[in-house]
UniProtKB/TrEMBL annotation, chain B:
<dbReference type="GO" id="GO:0032182">
    <property type="term" value="F:ubiquitin-like protein binding"/>
</dbReference>
<protein>
    <recommendedName>
        <fullName>Defective in cullin neddylation protein</fullName>
    </recommendedName>
</protein>
<comment type="function">
    <text>Neddylation of cullins play an essential role in the regulation of SCF-type complexes activity.</text>
</comment>
<dbReference type="InterPro" id="IPR005176">
    <property type="entry name" value="PONY_dom"/>
</dbReference>
<dbReference type="InterPro" id="IPR042460">
    <property type="entry name" value="DCN1-like_PONY"/>
</dbReference>
<dbReference type="GO" id="GO:0031624">
    <property type="term" value="F:ubiquitin conjugating enzyme binding"/>
</dbReference>
<dbReference type="InterPro" id="IPR014764">
    <property type="entry name" value="DCN-prot"/>
</dbReference>
<dbReference type="Pfam" id="PF03556">
    <property type="entry name" value="Cullin_binding"/>
</dbReference>
<feature type="domain" description="DCUN1">
    <location>
        <begin position="35"/>
        <end position="226"/>
    </location>
</feature>
<dbReference type="GO" id="GO:0045116">
    <property type="term" value="P:protein neddylation"/>
</dbReference>
<dbReference type="GO" id="GO:0000151">
    <property type="term" value="C:ubiquitin ligase complex"/>
</dbReference>
<dbReference type="GO" id="GO:0097602">
    <property type="term" value="F:cullin family protein binding"/>
</dbReference>
<dbReference type="InterPro" id="IPR011992">
    <property type="entry name" value="EF-hand-dom_pair"/>
</dbReference>
Length: 750, 230
């Protein structure tokens, strides 16, 4: 017993002794390290290193894991040494310095400390391997760093932060600063976190951000009054650039977003409205077409929350007022001057102006505004707001249709190139998107198409089809099906004409007596035309008869209705001086042929013989006796035809041309078109309502109205009151019923 | 059945020679009921016209004078409702029977006394809506007729709703007479008037929402009222 006690006692005694001895050696090493750091000595020699390392290693080897006396001692001693070093050397040196000098000192001391800890942890590496793990304490290195952090950094961090911020502001004001130093200082902050960024954030970044905010807030409050909008924006852009640059040079990268956000907030968000509303602000830029400035505005406002809303609003208002101004100008210029309704040049000026406006502001949305959805929407709403106004007494659907007509006519007579036509058509279709009365446009177009196809010599089939294709893409097949039918009819008409010719050749009995061309039109596709029971002159009767026979032989089950108002004929007028070929409408031809058998006829004679209606007859006679070419003499020679007039063949008539056209002016049936479209709309609404209810079975009132408007939006914008009336009608006709419990609910009645 | 026996008072003309109480009860109720029916029928025939076998307008006129009620009085309409009379101006035997049985009367005097109760009954909420729509249907005299002319509607509104919704009825009838969008009123619109009076605060109209499914004629009425004010 005595032996082991003694052994143990000896062991303990030996350990203490060994510890004292070993540590003394270590202390020498530490002192040498300090000197190395102060550059008073050079590096450890390899022998010195080995001695220190081995001493520690041996010491640690004597450690008994039951009490860990040795290792604990070593660990504690190490800690105390480091702390003592900091207290005696590091902190005093930091305390007596300020600003930049202090920062430099901090950087130096941290660097030194890292070196010291590195060496010491090498010597004490045995501790890390076993003792640290077992006791779950900080590693030797970490312990060293923690001491610095808590004692040195902890004391000086506020001063350091303030000094850094001061330097940043100095740089902002244009001063030169040592960027490398700042980077090093901030690296210290970062490294304090040992992988986590929180020390940097808490001890530096937060304060820096606040300070930045103050700084820019002050600047902004000056600039906003002094500078024009473009100048202010330039400054903002510059500031953002500078701050970004700052981050890349010495701030931690994680600060970038937050920093820029602060700047944007103080410079833009706070003053957004004021900036935009300045006299030199958004409105002025739009007015003066300052594309660059607008691009800058977009770039800046794009990043801030809800930034573009206000810009979009101003943009919309601007475009809207431009549209209204254009309309006003055109109304003043043309509508008040022309006598006839809708002077030709006026309409085209309106549409071309709209197209120009659209081009201009679309370019803005795709260019300056980078195709942003909010701005696109603003543009759309602006156009919708003025495209649906009535100009010069008629809606824009009508104007647009006239413009199309004009383009296609021009294309037919090759006054403009194919590319130009293609471009124009694209523009037209774009404008159509903004017009809510699309069905009205379709109807006007159809009427005009009909005139082109039937009367215009220069119809270009390809152009017509191209236009219809584009319309179909935009508005759907239902929109264009009738017009396509019309174009096809005319194409087929040529075929039929050949067949008719063959028939005439093969059939000797069939002699019309003159060159006859007949166009057979499918009723559903073409606009409805008034038929009248014209009593044709004998020559024409024969023609009709011959064709009828041919057609009936070819096709049964079809009924032919002759529309003479759409026909043309060429008649030779044998005047005294020379024979002139007159190209006139069938109505006019019929009247002229009467004068083959009579010298002088009264209005009523003509009326009875041909069975004309008054309004038609007046127009026809007017065109022949009171207009440019006076084929008939009128007695009395007044400006307008009256039922008491007498007419004679004007043998003295002549003209330098051998062939003249005498057109019959078109009756303005605009009101009728609008009326027809209105009627069709009622049916469309009914159909839509029934379709919706059939699918849903039960639906609330407001929902039904919404879905109905949605369903019809492609063609027109139905009036809510009209829809309500149609619903009531459907209720009365027992298609729908109200729910017994809830009067706002409708049920479909099967 | 027990009720019949409780009316032993008036029907005490029956000489009950029956033995057991139960028999008495049953016989009394049976006899009382059939006696009652007899009297109801008799009353019917006292007013009905021989040619058509129904009470015709003339008969109704005479009934009204016996009841001391004007024939345009709303209570006659209520009586027609009670009978579920189909044709305006005529009561059939079945209708008469069901009406008078429902009222538990079999003489003119009793009928006259029952009129206030009838009125109360009709004015009770579930019945009133029923009565209101009945009133419209009662005016549809022609076969397949679905609408009633404005003039009659105004009279009807006054008659039926006038006592409860005087201001609304006055303004509504005024409007109906001067507007020209509608020459006749259909059932849906008619029911709409009733809903309007019940639900919409008057005269401020603060809770009227034209986006809801009110008949268009009421939207126009409200517009007119609001513009009139302004």
């Amino acid at each position: 017993m005595t032996k082991s006690k003694k052994l143990r006692k000896n062991n303990v005694e030996n350990n203490v002794e060994a510890m004292e001895q070993g540590w003394a050696i270590m202390e020498e090493g530490i002192a040498k390290l300090k000197n190395i750091l102060e550059e008073l000595e050079s590096q450890f020699s390899s022998e010195e290193y080995m001695r220190l390392y081995t001493t520690m290693f041996n010491l640690a080897g004597r450690n008994n894991i039951d009490d860990d006396y040795i290792c604990q001692q070593l660990y504690n001693n190490y800690k105390e040494s480091v702390q003592a070093y900091i207290m005696s050397t590091v902190n005093p040196s930091l305390r007596d310095k300020h600003d930049e000098f202090m920062l430099r000192e901090l950087v130096r001391r941290w660097s030194d400390h890292k070196v010291m800890v590195k060496w010491l942890s090498r010597f004490l590496s045995y501790l890390d391997r076993y003792f640290v793990v077992r006791k779950k304490v900080e590693s030797v290195k970490d312990l060293g760093f923690s001491c610095f952090r808590d004692m040195a950094y902890g004391e000086v961090k506020h001063k350091a932060k303030d000094a850094v911020i001061a330097l940043i502001n100095k740089e902002r004001e244009g001063g030169q600063i040592d960027r490398a130093l700042l980077k090093n200082v901030l690296d210290v902050f970062v490294e304090m976190g040992k992988g986590e960024i929180e020390f940097y954030t808490d001890d530096f970044e937060d304060a820096m951000l606040k300070d930045t905010a103050h700084y820019y807030s002050r600047k902004a409050s000056q600039w906003i009054f002094q500078d024009s909008c473009p100048d202010y924006m330039l400054k903002v852009e510059e500031c953002l650039k500078t701050e970004k640059n700052r981050v890349s040079h010495y701030l931690h990268s994680s600060s970038e977003t937050k920093l820029l956000e602060q700047v944007e907030n103080e410079l833009l968000v706070v003053y957004a409205n004021q900036l935009l509303e300045k006299e030199t602000g958004c409105r002025a830029l739009l007015r003066d077409d300052k594309v660059d400035e607008l691009s800058r505005m977009y770039r800046l406002f794009h990043n801030i929350p809800k930034g573009l809303e206000e810009v979009a609003k101003i943009f919309k208002e601007h475009v809207h007022s431009e549209g209204l101004m254009a309309i006003q100008m055109i109304e003043d210029a043309t509508c008040n001057k022309t006598e006839k309704a809708g002077g030709a040049r006026g309409e085209h000026a309106l549409m071309t102006t709209f197209i120009e406006l659209h081009n201009k502001y679309s370019a803005y949305t795709t260019g300056c505004f980078c195709n942003n959805a909010v701005l696109h929407k603003a543009l759309k709403q602006a156009f919708e707001s003025f495209c649906n106004q009535v100009v010069c007494g008629t809606s824009n659907a009508d104007h647009l249709a006239s413009y199309c007509d004009y383009i296609l006519k021009k294309g037919g007579s090759e006054k403009i190139s194919d590319e130009a036509i293609d471009e124009s058509m694209d523009k037209i279709v774009k404008l159509l998107a903004y017009i809510s009365d699309k069905d009205l446009f379709a109807e006007f177009s159809r009427k005009k198409l009909s005139r082109r196809l039937l009367f215009d010599r220069n119809v270009n089939d390809d152009h017509e089809r191209l236009f219809l294709t584009k319309l179909k893409q935009q508005c759907g097949g239902q929109f264009t099906s009738k017009m396509e039918g019309m174009v096809t009819d005319l194409a087929l008409a040529k075929e039929n004409q050949n067949q008719f010719h063959e028939y005439l050749i093969n059939n000797n009995a069939a002699i019309p007596g003159m060159d006859l061309t007949v166009n057979v039109l499918t009723t559903g596709f073409w606009p409805t035309y008034k038929t009248c029971d014209l009593r044709l002159p004998a020559e024409m009767v024969k023609c009709v008869q011959v064709f009828k026979e041919h057609y009936e032989a070819k096709t049964k089950h079809r009924k032919l209705t002759w529309i003479y108002s759409l026909g043309t004929c060429s008649i030779n007028g044998k005047f005294d001086s020379k024979t002139i070929e007159l190209v006139v409408g069938t109505y006019q031809g019929a009247v002229l042929l009467l004068f083959n058998d009579a010298q002088r006829l009264s209005y009523s004679d003509i009326k009875t013989q041909l069975n004309f209606e008054d309004d038609d007859l007046m127009r026809v006679l007017h065109s022949l006796s009171c207009s440019k070419y006076k084929i008939l003499k009128k007695d009395p020679d007044s400006k307008f035809v009256s039922p008491n007039d007498y007419f004679e063949f004007n043998s003295k008539f002549t003209d330098k041309m051998r062939r003249i056209r005498i057109p019959l002016p078109v009756v303005d049936d605009r009101k009728k078109v609008i009326q027809d479209v209105d009627n069709d709309r009622r049916y469309s609404i009914d159909a839509a309502l029934v379709r919706i209810m059939k699918g849903r079975k039960i639906l609330g009132h407001q929902q039904l109205i919404l879905e109905c408007v949605e369903m019809l939006s492609n063609m027109f914008k139905p009036d809510v009151k009209v829809i309500k009336k149609r619903i009531e009608d459907l209720l009365a006709r027992d298609y729908l019923e109200r729910d017994a419990e809830n009067p706002n609910l409708y049920k479909y009645v099967a | 059945m027990p009720r019949a026996s409780s009316r032993k008072g008036p029907t005490n003309s029956t000489a009950s020679g029956n033995s057991s109480a139960v028999d008495l009860f049953r016989a009394a109720s049976g006899k009382a009921a059939s006696k009652e029916l007899e009297r109801i029928d008799q009353l019917f025939y006292s007013y009905s016209s021989n040619s058509c076998g129904m009470i015709d307008p003339e008969g109704i006129e005479s009934l009204c004078s016996d009841l001391e009620v004007d024939h345009t009085d709303v209570r006659i309409l209520m009586l027609a409702w009670k009978m579920q009379a189909e044709k305006q101006g005529y009561f059939t035997l079945d209708e008469w029977r069901s009406g008078l049985k429902g009222l538990r009367v079999d003489t003119t005097l009793k009928l006259k006394k029952a009129l206030p109760d009838l009125e109360k009954e009709v004015r009770r909420p579930p019945n009133f809506a029923n009565f209101y729509s009945f009133a419209f249907r009662y005016c549809l005299t022609e076969e397949k007729q679905k609408t009633v002319d404005i003039e009659s509607i105004c009279i009807l509104l006054d008659l039926i709703l006038g006592s409860v919704f005087r201001p609304q009825v006055d303004l509504l009838t005024q409007y109906l007479k001067i507007q020209s969008d509608y020459k006749v009123i259909n059932m849906d619109q008619w029911m709409g008037f009733y809903r309007f009076c019940n639900e919409i605060s008057f005269p401020d109209l603060s809770n009227y929402d034209p986006d809801l499914a009110w008949p268009l004629i009421l939207d126009n009425f409200v517009d007119w009222l609001r513009s009139d004010r302004a």
